[in-house]
Amino acid sequence: MNKPEILSPAGNFEKMRAAILYGADAVYLSGQVFGMRAAADNFTLDEMREAVAYAHERGVRVYLTLNTMPREYEYPELEKYLEELSDVGLDAMIIADVGVLMLVKKMLPDMEIHISTHANASSAAACRAWYGLGAKRVVLARELTLDEIRAIRQNIPEELELECFIHGSMCVSYSGRCLLSNHIIGRDANRGMCAQPCRWNYRISGYEIEEEKRPDCKMPVEEINGETFIMASRDTCTIEHIPELCEAGINSFKIEGRMKSAYYAAVATNAYRMALDSYLSGSYEYDPRWYDELLSVSHREYNTGYYFTDSHTDANLASNNGYIKDKAYLATCTAYNAESSLAQFTQRNKMTLGDKIELLTPGKIGRELTVTELYDADMNPIESTPHPYMTFYMRADGEIKVGDIIRAK
Fold this sequence. Notes:
10 helices; 20 strands
């Protein structure tokens, strides 16, 4: 039986801890340079060393995104960066550019190489070519159907791994190679600085569109048969199709979202962990509550990406540009006393006595609770938790574990 890994986003240390606690087999992160999410918190070299040690202690692999397309003048800096990375202990590097790949092979010959989705690998021939250049894994283009992925799996070496995005934001451009951000405000998406203008709010003025906060930046727009097509894609959600994804021969299930919250990393990882474990148990039964969990995080309209539709005929555009907001993330458990049934929490948003809340524990669906007792750090009774990051205590029926999350009902 194919046993894919759950690969979760780690935009910073907090998000990485959440992903690992809630079931990630591996995480992917970036340093301060040469990664495609420059606006994420990302990791300094010292933080990266600490993160790798933390993950390895828990049996979790760490992959570094090195997936921009550097210009000629950047290669001296890249060489210096690779020298600094040589003792970090990374398990693999995710690379999109063949020049970067060759430099990594030269400087770090033992480094495992994964080919980024930005390399647009869409065929077995492309995968075999990357394999011939030393790749251990290829992250396939997001535009492929499941049938195409099956065909690729059947026509590549068995030891070459395939990774696919199974959840999270899609890009309106082909495999993320977009020029829109650079065109509008001079921030190059292919160098890690995407401003996500495809998600901005636009309005039509005559035969032009303008963004609500940039009225002087007008773009001509053409109306065809009474319709105007804008840009934002739906989010991918494949929680209902874990058996098909496993049986297609995908080795790594990748969750998008290094820019999103620790709550997102925890919930998304947890839902797919439960679904995959159910399949691997041999007695799989789809639980619609897994999907409900994924509805609780910030997202746009869900769809199954291009796994079951043709990207040439269905652009997978959202009908509403806005995000569907997540349930409020209220607190995280930092200690628990079984004898007194008191749990210590760090506050993330305010809650009040009498509130209906949900407690999320790794490997389980959120369970409903009512807030009946709250205490401040000195164990004085309080009626609410109004202060950001305050320490407070709560008593509740049933065990609470360190790392458990409280969210609004």
